[in-house]
Amino acid sequence: MREIAIQSVQILGSLLVLTAFVAGQLRRMEPSDFAYVLLNLAGSAILAAVALIEQQWGFLLLEGVWAVVSLWSTVQLMRGKRLGAPH
């Protein structure tokens, strides 16, 4: 039962990240859109948490960094800054 729960949470996290990716590819969202960064933040944070629980260190590194970058982007947007703009 635990394995099914973990797999379900992983699928949810993956779907969130993939939703942003596919929407970006179809030009329905831009990487600088608030929804895009929130989907990436939520999905990568979920996947990082699962990787930590499962002690999957390489996956934790990947998803942890993805979550931190997504969090930084979210904070920048909340402060009214544009993403990708020159400093």
Summarize this structure briefly.
By secondary structure, this protein is mainly alpha-helical. It is 76% helix and 0% strand.
Q: How does this structure look, described?
A:
The longest helix has 24 residues. The radius of gyration is 14 Å and the shape is globular. Helix 1 packs antiparallel against helix 2 and helix 2 packs antiparallel against helix 3. The chain has 3 helices and no strands. The chain is an all-alpha fold and 87 residues long.
Properties at a glance:
87 residues, mainly alpha, 3 helices, 76% helix, 0% strand
Radius of gyration: 14 Å
What share of residues are in beta strands? Answer: under 5%
Largest sheet data: none
Label the overall shape.
globular
Helix tally equals: 3
Record field, number of beta strands: 0
Pairing-aware structural class of the strands and helices?
A: mainly alpha
Topology diagram in text:
Elements (H helix, E strand, L loop, with lengths): L1 H24 L8 H20 L3 H22 L9
